[in-house]
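User: I want to check something. If I give you two sequences, will you return the structure for each one separately, not as a complex?

Assistant: Yes, each is folded on its own. Here is the first sequence with its structure:
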Amino acid sequence: MQYKKSVALLVAAASIANADSSSSTSSNSTSVPSSCVVKSVATAQSDLDKFSGCEVLSGTLTLTGSLGSAALADVKEIQGTLNISSAQNLASFAADSLETITGNLNLIELTSLQTASFGSLSSVGSINFITLPVIETINTNLQSADNVVISDTALETISGFSKLQKVSIFNINNNKALVSIDSDMETVSNALEINSNGDNANITFDNLIWANNITVRDLNGLSFASLEKVNASLGFLNNSVTSIALHNLTQVGGSLSVIANDELTSLNLSSVTKVGGGLVIANNTKLNKIDGISNVKSIGGALVVEGNFSTLDISSLSSVMGGADVVTTGSNFSCDPLKSLEKKGDIQGDEFVCKAPQASTSISLSAKSSSGSGSASASASASDSDSASGSASGSASDSASASASDSASASESASSTKSSTSSKSTASSTVNTKSKAAAFAVNAPSGSFFGALAAIGLALL
């Protein structure tokens, strides 16, 4: 956990550097009196009072030291960054006249801060609220921000962003008291990451139409009523929700992962017709019927479905560019639809596995690519078990399940994964260490079956 927090701090530091660089350019565009140019670090209220006659400040204003409370009066714009960090005694801060910050607003490692008020703030480059263990409220009127990172706080609700309609990164992690996030956001151009928050946390993003990446973990409830498209990856991991319904979602450009949601009984992705990467539905203990992907026509990577299901409706599926690994302990499951796809060549990867109590099929397809003849041998047992293996490959029917959630690296670095997540075993696989998974990831083609399993293994380690 400490490592994850350190990563979040490093990402915040990088954001600060970028914001300072961009804001220095903007500060040169507007002339301000020399008395309103920040020249030193503020350590007392008297240092802030020097700017009481300034509507515009130029430069990075850093506040630290042993203040108990502090306020920035009159200032409407900071052409730079407002950085409040490591002020261990600071209990409250207010800057209610402040409307614009061209760089970052950083509240970092403030262990006594209970309230922060920015009642007029509508525009900021990035927000980093990190390690605020007793914070109760943060008041803003925010309408524009590039990045929002809120990590390791005592906030119960995050609702000060109701007017914020578009961001690049929205990352909320490790807020153990968090109960709800309500947002009117419409687009996320880089990554939406929600993970490791309170056990009863619920999120509502009912106005969100489009995002590049979405990964949500450890939630008690979630809603994306208007979501139509995800350009890259979409992952639902280790949630306690009973239902996932994305009625308007039509396309996922990268991987789609639904993994280890122990209470999930209903999955409805009925409008999805195309998944550009791998499709992974695994270890959802109570999901006995998988009929919400019936309109998926093509999968650009591997198909991995594992669990205790009796129904898997893939009636529209006509193309799987990777391999297929379907394993169930449920009764009355038939492998026939998958066998039909494989025989027609619609499953194009190097491995095909279908296992159920009544029937089991394991076929290596690499012989087709090495000889062109498809000379695989097949044998059937009394238990209706078919097994065929090509002369150019060995058995690789061990199953794996996990997240192919390949969110953008910026959001991935900013998020902290709950420590208990790693203790949940979501797969039984020969790829059981990070080093082995990494080796597969390096050596396996990205569209191959092993490539999918490698990405899966890396994601949950």
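And separately, the second sequence with its own structure:
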Amino acid sequence: MSARWVKWASAAAYVVMLALGWRYPLLGTLVFAFMGAFVLLGGRKKWCASACPRGSFLDVVWSKLSPRRQAPKWLSSWKFYGVALSTFLILFGTQLLLAHRAGGLDARSLGFIFWRMCVISSLVALPLGLWANHRTWCSFCPVGKLIRL
């Protein structure tokens, strides 16, 4: 399987998950499970480069719209990453707590949380790609940074 095919398939998965995840929340769970399996099977370094659904979408589609300006250095600083990660974890933890209080955590509720986190982070990633470089989000993506630690 070529890297180009993986990138296109992954970008398509991103679009499908964003479009249908609210109706079929298990799609969010599947994307999260795919990431976990990929990383556990030794694809840590390749996840961000070719298998990450958002990164693939940003490469395949958003790169055509991006002005390809260099992002400010502070966006890739560890200090900014700490703020971004803290915000991400607070949002994620709050949603887990609310779902637990509302009736428990199952694959469906977790999938909806993963979908919602993807939507929220896409609302940051997509405008950044139109403002600077299409992959600006990747410089402080919480998942990518945690995988590389």
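Because they were folded independently, the notes below concern the second chain alone. The two ends are 28 Å apart (CA to CA). The chain has six helices and no strands.
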